[in-house]
Design a protein that fits this description.
Strand order of the largest sheet: 2-1-3-4-5
Largest sheet: 5 strands, parallel
Bound molecules: 5-O-phosphono-beta-D-ribofuranose
Helix content: 40-55%
Radius of gyration: 15 Å
Structural class: alpha/beta
Mean pLDDT: 97
Shape: globular
Order of helices and strands: EHEHEHEHEHH
Low-confidence stretches: none
Length: 153
Amino acid sequence: MTSFVSIVAGSKNDEGFLEPAFAVLRDFSITFEFKVLSAHRNTERLFEYIEDADARGVSIYLAAAGFSAALPGVVAAKTLRPVLGIPVPVGPLQGMDALLSIVQLPSGIPLAGMPLGNHGPKNAALFAAHILALHDDGVAGHVAAFRAALNAS
Ligand code: RP5
């Protein structure tokens, strides 16, 4: 079973914002798939997808949404894999609502919150890489090289 990262977004309109996450995962040769499934509009299909992705060996979920951002918490509630929540800066509150939703999930269902703004997607992918690097020497090499380049810059 090939391990992979799943990126789930609440809207097709979130895809462009997530491009820095895709870029990091590609650069680090981490297999990933991207799905658009809203927690409130596509609830049944979202549950089916998570069951299927879990069965196919997903390692980590990145879940991105704007507004009330139920998606990251719902994904975390449905899987035992780590979930990294990415607030999408849209709407009248520019993602402050999504950020608070992600970091206010009550205890029992853990959900990691990534930064609000353009740094969120990239750091989410890097965070996923750091987790995978614990058991994958290839990813660990990419993480170390990235950090070395950062230190040298
Ligand atoms: C959330 O609501 C999505 O994640 C998106 O960020 C936001 C707006 O969705 P659209 O109206 O653009 O589809 O569910």
